[in-house]
Write a structure and sequence with these properties.
Blueprint: E1 16-17, H1 28-40, H2 50-66, E2 75-78, H3 81-89, E3 99-103, H4 112-121, E4 124-128, H5 137-148, E5 153-159, H6 171-180, E6 184-188, H7 200-203, E7 207-210, E8 223-227, H8 278-291, H9 293-313, E9 316-317, E10 328-333, H10 339-348, E11 351-352, E12 354-356, E13 359-363, H11 370-387
Parallel strand pairs: 1-11, 3-4, 3-5, 5-6, 6-7
Antiparallel strand pairs: 2-8, 7-8, 9-10, 10-13, 12-13
Helix pairs in contact: 1-8, 2-8, 3-4, 9-11, 10-11
The structure holds pyridoxal-5'-phosphate.
Residues 80-82, 107, 109, 159, 163, 188, 190-191, 211 line the site of pyridoxal-5'-phosphate.
């Protein structure tokens, strides 16, 4: 069992940070690495030619290991999920009867590019709504998604978990059904990869995108992606020199070549040597590989088990364990809850969690402890008493 890892972070003891789904705290050692990487630019003559290519390759290898992908060349560096989704949407042609299937209130970065191409080709976005009733919500929502995949479906684009409340989507089943209908499966792993095991070989998606700054515990503005076979000969969004074959031969750069680097190589963002951020993201992923993601998820499961029982006992609505993540979950209130009062309780007790609509999104990680969870439960109980 993984033990609490708070000593690796700089979070004060009186702060309960329950908002990794927003942005992760950086580990102390990675903050040092980042500062060293910035300082290196004061002495650029110490940056060798290898430094332009080798660190991004090591990062790709480590991410490939994290998601059980057997070829690091299927991994590309991206600046954001929206960039990745735009890259794949750029390579999909639709006809008028085609549908792109997404779920209700999907994150905007995994929506607008689909809206663009459906408009362009006169096709349709089909949004799968959750059931209205809280009973079996996750199970029924998954069934609705599966039942909505048909010969009209060209793309299924969704997350492994819903970003707002952690509802789990059964990607292996969705993938099987999508393949039966020749639809592409495009995954936004931003709210799961790093905290919830994700296995490329079991899920068999066509593309995966993931920000670096949430569950991968890395920096902002550098994320990772996986591109499957469908995209092997596609068109990248931009034509940068470093994605071309033999770009490490600096003398030959203007011997222009029509050839890209293999597989996902063409989809890397320009300036992907990113001397400042690559070491941070790589250090974070090395740490995750050492902890092992299944242990991170198990740590979170153990941490939230008792608080969730307590919250359910006082009438809070929380999705069943089988259809919800353990690192990210939503608390809904089946009675009128004064959310302003709850927010001020959070502020007074230095609890950082997201309030969305009439729900609270709680996201925990290996730096959280029992004290954080007890504070959360007390604040909700106290607000309930005050509102009664
Ligand atoms: C599910 C999900 N995808 C993507 C993002 C970020 O998107 P982008 O990298 O395009 O800014 C977020 C940010 O909260 C998110 O929750």
């Amino acid at each position: 069992m993984l033990k609490n890892q708070k000593d690796k972070f700089d979070l004060p003891n009186d702060v309960s940070y329950l908002n990794c789904a927003n942005i992760a705290p950086l580990m102390n050692k990675l903050s040092i690495l980042g500062k060293e990487a910035i300082d290196l630019r004061q002495r650029p003559y110490k940056i060798s030619r290898d430094d332009w290519f080798k660190p991004p390759e090591i990062l790709k290898r480590n991410f490939a290991k994290l998601i059980n992908c057997d070829d690091f060349q299927r991994i590309a560096l991206i600046p954001s999920v929206s960039y990745g989704i735009a890259s794949v949407a750029n390579n999909i042609k639709l006809s008028k009867k085609d549908e792109i299937l997404i779920v209700h209130e999907q994150y905007p970065s995994n929506y607008y590019s689909w809206q663009n191409i459906t408009k362009k080709f006169g096709a349709e976005i089909k949004i799968i709504m959750p059931p209205n009733e809280p009973e079996n919500r996750g199970k029924l929502w998954n069934e609705k998604i599966l039942n909505s995949i048909s010969d009209k479906t060209r793309v299924v684009a969704l997350g492994n978990v819903h970003w707002a409340d952690g509802t789990l989507f059964q990607l292996e089943k969705i993938s099987k059904k999508a393949k039966q209908h020749n639809a592409l499966l495009i995954i936004d792993g931003s709210q799961s990869i790093g905290a919830l095991p994700f296995d490329i070989q079991n899920i068999k998606p066509d593309a995966v995108f993931c920000v670096g700054y949430k569950w991968l515990l890395g920096p902002f503005s550098l994320g990772l992606s996986y591109f499957g076979e469908y995209f092997d000969n596609g068109n990248p969004l931009e034509e940068n020199w470093i994605n071309r074959k033999d770009s490490n031969d600096f003398q030959g750069l203007v011997d222009y070549t029509p050839h890209y680097r293999p597989l996902a190589g063409r989809y890397n963002v320009g300036e992907n040597s990113n001397f400042h951020l690559v070491p941070i993201l790589n250090g974070a992923i090395e740490q995750l590989n050492e902890w092992k993601v299944e242990n991170v998820q198990a740590y979170c499961k153990n941490l939230i088990a008792k608080p969730i029982d307590e919250l359910k006992n006082i009438g809070c609505i929380i999705e069943d364990g089988d259809f919800r993540a353990n690192h990210l979950f939503g608390i809904r209130f089946g009675y009128s809850m004064d959310l302003e009062k709850l927010q001020s309780q959070f502020v007074n007790n230095k609890i950082f969690a997201s309030l969305r609509g009439n729900a609270v999104r709680v996201s925990v990680n290996v730096y959280n402890n029992e004290n954080d969870m007890n504070k959360l439960v007390s604040c909700i109980k106290n607000t309930l008493k005050a509102s009664a």
